[in-house]
Amino acid sequence: xxxxxxxxxxxxxxxxxxxxxxxxxxxxxxxxxxxxPPSPNAIAAMKAVxxxxxxxxxxxxxxxxxxxxxxxxxxxxxxxxxGNGSDEILAFAFASFFDPSKPVLFPDITYSFYKVYxxxxxxxxxxxxxxxQFLLDVNQFKGEHGGIIIPNPNAPTAIPMxxxxxKVLLDNNPDQVVxxxxxxxxxxxxxxxxLVSSYPNLxxxxxxxxxxxxxxxxxxxxxxxxxxxxxLNRTKNSFNSYTIDRVALAGAVAAIEDQAYFQATTEKxxxxxxxxxxxLQTLGFIITPSKANFVFISHPTIAAKQLFEQLRxxxxxxxxxxxxxxxxFLRVSIGTDEEMKVFLEVIERLIG
Amino acid sequence: xxxxxxxxxxxxxxxxxxxxxxxxxxxxxxxxxxxxPPSPNAIAAMKAVxxxxxxxxxxxxxxxxxxxxxxxxxxxxxxxxxGNGSDEILAFAFASFFDPSKPVLFPDITYSFYKVYxxxxxxxxxxxxxxxQFLLDVNQFKGEHGGIIIPNPNAPTAIPMxxxxxKVLLDNNPDQVVxxxxxxxxxxxxxxxxLVSSYPNLxxxxxxxxxxxxxxxxxxxxxxxxxxxxxLNRTKNSFNSYTIDRVALAGAVAAIEDQAYFQATTEKxxxxxxxxxxxLQTLGFIITPSKANFVFISHPTIAAKQLFEQLRxxxxxxxxxxxxxxxxFLRVSIGTDEEMKVFLEVIERLIG
Lengths: 352, 352
Known about the structure:
homodimer; 352 residues; alpha/beta; Aspartate Aminotransferase, domain 1; Aspartate Aminotransferase, domain 2; 2 domains; 5-stranded mixed β-sheet; 4-stranded antiparallel β-sheet; 11 helices; 13 strands; 14% strand; globular; EC 2.6.1.9 (chains A, B); aminotransferase (chains A, B)
């Protein structure tokens, strides 16, 4: 604590990212990165812009990237916003659409950054409890409130929400913004992008960090009605006009346009996930129905914290959350087949 | 206006960046970019990290860059913060140190983003008037207030503040944070970095965008006491944990370490500025005493707006601010000698 901190900063409870250890080389299954490299086209596009033009500001409106996303998704450029990772877009969206005088609804088990954003903007969260299977009842998301945010698939449970449920949310809450955070949607869930032109209150947020293998580049994007996108731009231009650098812009455009590579690597991750799930089931694990690039697993007899620590000692990093209701579970990112083979061998030994 | 915007977003008055026209090629003297390319070492370092590791998150703490800055400035890593451009650091600093219940002091003529940040955080600015020569009386910055921010040199006037004045500010206001925004300091003004270890209330902000020729990369940094840096980190980690991408991180480290290249290009810009100032004086212009990479000029008989438009027609872009007290002036970035030769020829023809 410092006398120089504002009351706001003194009150914050900052997010803690997954560890990036430097002590030795781990099989890193703890931050849901993609095990495959980015598209070769994206690599080439980035190399091509590492030149003297870096002395110049980037396009503050990232028009090239917005055009590429508009074309691919059959939307107008005015329905698209881009940011420095989907986390930055979430931060702008909480400011733009959630009225601090009313509670904002999200699941009690979800991406832990939401409560951090709420605190930053003085918003009171109203947590909607998932059931014992971590399933969400969309009909609980209504009444007097200031907005809704739900990841699809949810994190860290990996469980998807059917598009029919998203429609119910939008129909039940026409006067509030509903944000669907689709960071992991490409690994098997249904995107709500198809609903963007029908619902003025829908904002869909996606990222290059997971299915496009570009966590190191920091680019996210959002789809919504023109009025929502204008709101995001008002907020962004009151905070930082130039959020995406020239290299990230070039890499993002090429990654978006290389649909074939994206599909091939995504299918590989999904196939590996299905094999891992089968094997973990034979080992007695409880596993939520995952449509993400990670699985959420619990062993009936061995404590998750103990397993987490033992895996770490054996050189395998996974994520453990010491939070109520989920402290019996581990979140395990899907790596390459080789990495998952080692993971499964280690875990079989540990529980054996 | 949209019913979905929060009261905050509805109330904002966003910043408008300098234009980046795409209709034709201009001599671009409107956004204070450096006319020289980035360090060749920075170019090489960036190319070297365009590889498969981009699938992985960057170091959220940017330790390599913080180490390089610490070494160069004789400070501890705990006295350094880095961000996605100095604008992002300013946005975090307004949140971290300025109590919205009290007015924040800055000059009436200054970087126009300050009043935008103030609006974003519900802070009331108290504008301290510069005198007729745009000079600042530091003894006016005291009393009951929530903090101080001043650019050195000031923008768009280009006028530097002596280090003795910064000391007076810090001594007069020991209970409030004083932010010195040194975006342009390397072109001849005195940095306050030397005071960082003596004054717990001092935050100095710098950027790679100007003197390091990397506006396209979006990296800024701040120097301050450990408690101020901790405050910035609390705010950042409540907003976006991964603000600097892998490529920007590598380029920034190499740019910081290539001190010889930085000195050579900075000296060239300063030498060109001095020649331009001499020539403009012979043409009858009023010119503020610039220690920045731009000059702030006024012609006694020809209106600045008219000159701005005529220069644009002739393919030379400069910046005109339609604001009280400075609407007789143009802000002209210092380009290469060749670019400034064209600028001077055009302007001599226009006023002739």
